[in-house]
Structure formats: C-alpha cells, structure tokens
Amino acid sequence: MALPFRKDLEKYKDLDEDELLGNLSETELKQLETVLDDLDPENALLPAGFRQKNQTSKSATGPFDREHLLSYLEKEALEHKDREDYVPYTGEKKGKIFIPKQKPVQTFTEEKVSLDPELEEALTSASDTELCDLAAILGMHNLITNTQFCNMMGSSNGVDQEHFSDVVKGEKILPVFDEPPNPTNVEESLKRIKENDAYLVEVNLNNIKNIPIPTLKDFAKALETNTHVKYFSLAATRSNDPVATAFAEMLKVNKTLKSLNVESNFITGVGILALIDALRDNETLAELKIDNQRQQLGTAVELEMAKMLEENTNILKFGYQFTQQGPRTRAANAITKNNDLVRKRRVEGDHQAAPGAGDGRGIYSCRKQGGMESEVTLASKFRPGCIIYRDVSEGKKSHF
C-alpha cells in the first residue's frame, strides 16, 4: 500500500525541468539562486563577501587602489579641524611645591687619646719590625698591608728604614709589548731554497699574513728538489687547501724534510687528507703539526689520521688535538710504538758499534785511579761474568 505523499510525487515524475527553467523570468531566476546558495556565516576561513548573500545590486565604482585610499584618508585627517578645548589652559599653578627635608649632617669628632708617658715613649722609639709584631699579637692586622710587610721583609737588613704609611700607593703596571714581526725575508728564503743552499736548514714563515698563495705553492715546488732544508714552518699564514695539496705533492718526492708545521690556518679536511695520504710514500718526515685549523676536521678525517699513524713507523711527533676518544687512543699507541722502535734501533746500534763485540770480549770502561790505569774487560775464557782488572803500570792481573 503506497503512502499518500508518494502518490503526489508520482505526478511530478514526468515534468520537464528544462522547460520549467526556461519559462522563468530573470527576477525569478535570481530569487531561485538566492534560495539555493549554501552559505556558512560562521566560517572564519572564508572572506566576508562569501559568508553572506549579496545584499545589493549596485555596480562597483572602480578598481581598488590602496595608495589612493591612504592618501585620501591622510588628506581628510589634515583638513579636519581639531575640536576646541572647553577649558583653556591658563598656566596657573595649583598645589604646593615639594621641598625635600634636609637631614642634619652628623659630624664625628675624634677624641684625643692620651697615653702614659712611658708607653708613648716606647711606641715612638719602636722599630717597624716591633710594630709588626705588636700588631700581630693584638690581632690588628689592618695596621699594615701586605705590600708594606713585603717591603719590610725584602729590605737589605730585614727592616725597612722608613715608617709605614696608612696610604697604599698603587704600583705602576709594566707595559706588555707585542711580539716583533717575523723578520724572515720571504723572497730571499724562496731564492735560497731554489738554489739548494747548504746553509739553509730551517725556514720559519710563521705569522706572516701577507704571503700570496702562489708564493706558498712556489715554496712547496722548490722543496721537491731541495736536499738541505729539514724544518719548514708556515703556521698562521692564511694557508688553504691548495697550499696543503701542493705540500702533499712535495712530501711524496722530498727525502730530506723532517718537520712540517701548518698549524693555525684555513685548511679543511680535504687538504689534511691530502697530507695524510702523502705520508704513506714518505719515510723521512718525523714531525707533523696540523692543529688549530679554522674548521673542525670531523670524525672521518681523524680516523684516517689514526690509520696513517698505525701504518707509518717514522712519525714520532704528531701535533693535533683529537676530539674523538677512539682515534685519540689509536694515535697515542701508534706514536708510542714508533718511539719504542727508534729506541730499540739506537740500542742495537750501540751494541754493534762496541769494540770486541765479535770475539766475545768488550771493554766497558777505562779509568785512572791514583795514577794507575785500569781496564775492565769481560773475557769469555774465564767464568761467565768474570771481570779482569789489569794494572798497566805493574803488568799484574787479577780477577774475581
């Protein structure tokens, strides 16, 4: 059984909607559009013009010009007259003028202390040392200052000749002058390196800021063929990665340089890695200083440093402050191992250079006692560890 309203709806199924809209007038279409508009007046995300229906049918007066509107508002504000004061200002002062109360100044008068004639005579004739002892006994340490006490104790006879004064004079501060500039002649040093001067062993270019980068590269190029310079330092010379790369190429060829210092420069991890990689082919450099660069090198570069030190047995001094614990420990162990190897080689060389090492006999010392010359000889024909003393003057031998 169909509902009554469904029977009413069935008669509208066959209606033509396009025909109905076509028969509506313009006014009826606008009214229909207004009814069908779904606007939300509470939506804060929409502009004000889209939250409500259009209330007017007026056309726009013109395009919006913000500068023109501001100038118009400013002009209107200047032309508008200010409202006159209802109560004019007459300049009349009302009330009382504040006068601060003056507090009475308290004056302190020192009373004159009178001592016994004997006590006053004793204090007048007392020396400065006795006065210091008296102040210490009474606990009145404010009678003298540390400066006065040190001056008294530091005098020639232990007692200052002048009396102590209550006024402590300030000591004059000695000026601290800046260090003189580096006197090294850059051009002359470069020329002597190129000429392979035998008297030029150490080159110090530290703190010379105005050396051009091409000149520093020329130093590296000249050191490739130099056979006399053993110590080269260019700390705080504003060197960068190209300079470090040039010195890395020099280290691959040079067989004389023992110490290189490039601290306090602008070298990054790229330049440091180039120097580290060059040390794999260098067997003469014993000291390298690369600390205090402008940019931190990072963990990867520090790991490469530690790996190089473990592979290179010639580096005895490595100037760099590691930031990571792992590379720091590995580098310290490698440097210790390299120094131990040098010590062992030196000890073995001393043993091989000792006379009589091949036949089992070695003279350990030769001394003179009371005009008698003696030799301490370890002989293998006697008991092991036997020492023979031979008196050269009398031709006698004794052993134990």
UniProtKB/TrEMBL annotation:
Keywords: Actin-binding, Cytoplasm, Cytoskeleton. The gene is TMOD3. This is Tropomodulin 3. GO terms for cellular component: striated muscle thin filament. PANTHER family: TROPOMODULIN, TROPOMODULIN-3. Transmembrane segments: none annotated. It is found in: Cytoplasm, Cytoskeleton. Pfam families: Tropomodulin (PF03250). GO terms for biological process: actin cytoskeleton organization; erythrocyte development; mitotic cell cycle phase transition; pointed-end actin filament capping; positive regulation of mitotic cell cycle phase transition. It comes from Macaca mulatta (Rhesus macaque). GO terms for molecular function: actin binding; tropomyosin binding. Belongs to the tropomodulin family. It comes from the Eukaryota.
